[in-house]
């Protein structure tokens, strides 16, 4: 049923990156997000436990009205939705925000995470007045740490025993990318590369 809806309704793209595009998140995307967040690996890596579909739908609806965050569906060039990315806790005065990403398990390990993070930081620094974009993840989440390092993020420290998940305490890595570090990156910017280009 999800696949039929995806095929029948092309999404309006609002931002493009290298190999991916972003579409504004819609309440009807709650089913996709619920599925991605319910994956045991993703649930562990992002430190959240799966919620009911109705709870995810309420959260998506509530987040749409928040002025300090932007949520997007990550799309492949053919329009296939493969993840949810967000720029949260935006403080336009201080120029700070936090990035969050969850990908469909079937599309992990293919470079899409790096493409999505690159596109979002290009949006944060190229279109928004951000000076610092932060990311937080478990120190054991090697996939996310690799994606963030590849996008230029620098690990600033570790919050020891900061996350309780499934009865265990986890250390949390804090990483950030500053505007001047983004400016020094030699990769093409999102607006320089067609969505199908790699």
UniProtKB/TrEMBL annotation:
Q: Which residues form the N-acetyltransferase domain?
A: 20-181
Q: Does the keyword Transcription apply?
A: no
Q: Does the keyword ATP-binding apply?
A: no
Q: Which SUPFAM superfamilies match?
A: Acyl-CoA N-acyltransferases (Nat)
Coiled-coil annotation: which residues? none
| InterPro entries assigned | Acyl_CoA_acyltransferase, GNAT_dom, Ribosomal_N-acetyltransferase
Question: Do you know which PROSITE patterns this protein is assigned to?
Answer: GNAT
| PANTHER family (alphabetical) | ACETYLTRANSFERASE, RIBOSOMAL-PROTEIN-SERINE ACETYLTRANSFERASE
Name of this protein: GNAT family N-acetyltransferase
Q: What is the organism of origin for this protein? A: Streptomyces kaempferi
């Amino acid at each position: 049923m999800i696949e039929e809806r995806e095929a029948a309704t092309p999404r309006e793209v609002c931002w493009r990156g290298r190999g991916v595009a972003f579409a504004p998140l819609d309440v009807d995307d709650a089913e996709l997000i619920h599925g991605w967040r319910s994956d045991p690996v993703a649930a562990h890596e992002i430190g959240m436990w799966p919620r009911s579909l109705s709870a995810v739908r309420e959260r998506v609806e509530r987040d749409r009205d928040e002025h300090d965050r932007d949520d997007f569906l990550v799309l492949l060039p053919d329009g296939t939705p493969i993840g949810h990315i967000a720029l949260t806790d935006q403080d336009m005065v201080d120029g700070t925000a936090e990035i969050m990403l969850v990908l469909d398990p079937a599309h992990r390990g293919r470079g899409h995470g790096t493409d999505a993070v690159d596109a979002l930081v290009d949006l944060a620094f190229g279109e928004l007045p951000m000076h610092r974009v932060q990311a937080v993840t478990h120190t054991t989440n090697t996939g996310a740490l690799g994606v963030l390092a590849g996008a230029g993020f620098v690990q600033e420290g570790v919050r020891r025993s900061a996350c309780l998940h499934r009865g265990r305490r986890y250390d949390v890595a804090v990483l950030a990318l500053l505007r001047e570090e983004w400016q020094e990156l030699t990769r093409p910017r999102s607006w320089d590369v067609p969505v199908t280009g790699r």
